[in-house]
Amino acid sequence: MAFVTHRFIRTISSTTVRNAAIKHVTIIGGGQMGAGIAQVAAATGHSVVLVDTSEEILKKSAKGIEGSLKRIAKKKFADKPEAGEEFIQKVMKNVTTSTDAASVVSGTDLVLEAIVENLKVKQGLFGSLDKVAPEHTIFASNTSSLPITDIASSTARLDRFGGLHFFNPVPLMKLVEVVQTPMTSQATFDALLDFSKALGKHPVSCKDTPGFIVNRLLVPYMMEAIRLHERGHGSKEDIDVAMKLGAGYPMGPFELLDYVGLDTAKFIIDGWHAMEPENPLFSPSPMLNKLVEEGKFGKKTGEGFYKHK
Ligand SMILES: NC(=O)c1ccc[n+]([C@@H]2O[C@H](COP(=O)([O-])OP(=O)(O)OC[C@H]3O[C@@H](n4cnc5c(N)ncnc54)[C@H](O)[C@@H]3O)[C@@H](O)[C@H]2O)c1
């Protein structure tokens, strides 16, 4: 029955929804990822509304974007500081902010969320926006670990729903995993691919499986590093150095965990463990749980496995 329904929706979508270019973007969540995506979208000429829960957070997001643009301008326009300033102003003009998503989605082509990694919260957000967003608007999630199909199930636009998984830091990382569920229409998938390319990124195509490509390989690796350390088989410093010098990785696993956010890593592994409790690669870690309990989330809180200034 579900299969028939999905096929029906796909047929409808491919005939009624045009593959128009994404120009106006609403990004929900102005944290590490949302602010980075907003910056890149604005810098490539898209009009962006960045949404978060308070003005205070949004001020911090805007300041972060401006700071990042300043660093880019300093390199890009080393000999022409005025041109650099002009570039910053031009990009910042493309970004507005709001604390009320429902009131800003009326003119948007894409709603992309980068909020907390929690299925119920993401479903609640998209469920409410589905009622107010225009028919043509595509919804996408930047989730690292949750099934896109489950998030989309809170809406009636399964054909116009996909995954856009960016990497941290967004302005520097070239990859975007574009995720197609069995219900995502080809027009939607193509629009998301084109949007990723318009941002100057290199998209790869993925099916809706846990962790897509990168995290399915990377998260079990980082958890193995914590387990190695928990068993007392290596200090975190030595494990980090070993992977950098021995495997040529730019960061060690503990440095990477602090960068990603230990809360995010815990959400991911707990979710996968619940899905596949027998899989030893998805076992939770007491050490990770303790750090998260203590509010030590990594770089964003000033301390994780390491202390950060
Ligand atoms: N950190 C990474 O390396 C990384 C990489 C790829 C994907 N992701 C995914 O991106 C998402 C965000 O991760 P992050 O690291 O940017 O988190 P973050 O904690 O830095 O930012 C999340 C932001 O969302 C806001 N928020 C929470 N609920 C909201 C709501 N209902 N409405 C509006 N704003 C809300 C918070 O106030 C916060 O500013 C998660 O789904 C995560 O799995 C993270």
Descriptive report:
51% of the residues lie in helices and 13% in strands. With 309 residues, it is an alpha/beta fold. Helix 2 (32-43) packs across helix 3 (55-76), helix 3 packs antiparallel against helix 4 (81-93) and helix 9 (214-230) packs across helix 11 (253-260). It is globular and about 55 Å long. Residues 1-18 have low confidence and may be disordered. Nicotinamide-adenine-dinucleotide binds at residues 28-34, 51-53, 57, 114-117, 121, 125, 142-144, 165-168, 260-261, 264, 300.
How many H/I helices?
13
Mean pLDDT: 93
Q: Between the first and last Cα atoms, what is the distance in angstroms?
A: 55 Å
Largest sheet: 8 strands, mixed
How much is the radius of gyration in Å?
Answer: 20 Å
Q: Could you say which structural class the secondary elements and strand pairing correspond to? A: alpha/beta
Main-sheet strand order equals 3-2-1-4-5-6-7-8
The amount of beta strand, in percent, is 5-15%
Please estimate the helix content: 40-55%
> Segments where pLDDT lies below 50 for 5+ residues?
1-18
Q: List ligands, each type once.
A: nicotinamide-adenine-dinucleotide
Characteristic terms for this protein:
309 residues, alpha/beta, disordered N terminus
What's the gist of this structure?
Helices cover 51% and strands 13% of the residues. It has 309 residues and is α/β, with parallel strands linked by helices.
